[in-house]
Amino acid sequence: MRSRSRRSAFSLFEVVIVSAVLLMVAALTYPTLKNSFGYYKLNGGIDSVRAAWAQARARAIEQGRPYRFAVEPNGSHFRVAPDNDSYWSGSAPSDDSQGKGYILEQGLPGGVRFSLNDAPPASTSSDNQLTTMGNTPDTTNYSGINWSTAVVFQPDGTAKEDVRIVFQVTGVQPTAVQLRGMTCAVTVEPIKK
Question: In this model, does residue 127 exceed pLDDT 60?
């Protein structure tokens, strides 16, 4: 009769070695993964602002009236609505002679902040918390925000002036988005530190 030697389990030493290797790999990849999440959040914020600009410009051309894009100064919220003070004093007017205007109110992904025309963004202690948690700050009531006009899109497809918005998130190189007023061409470029 033949006796076979069978190995029924791993030794404690083998389990500890494999666990240590996995722990080292996780420790080496964590900073890279954390920064890549910030990179995707930053690009998501840029894309949402570019989409809002496209909507505002299209509505201005379509409806034949100017549309305003405004931001929360050193914040993470933006708004698009007709360039009429009645749309910016709270809620939309019920008796607009040009018809109901398009209103868009949105926030950037969690941890992403922007500033207008190279003003340094104010950093708050909640920035790091928002970045690590990955939550999008969402305020359903935008009426309490003091909006700062960034650009006004004209019915002829141009904008009143050039605008530059700098996007920042912790751990990622800041990125500037510039809109040219005459052509409404948009350029995106990383800011060298």
Answer: no
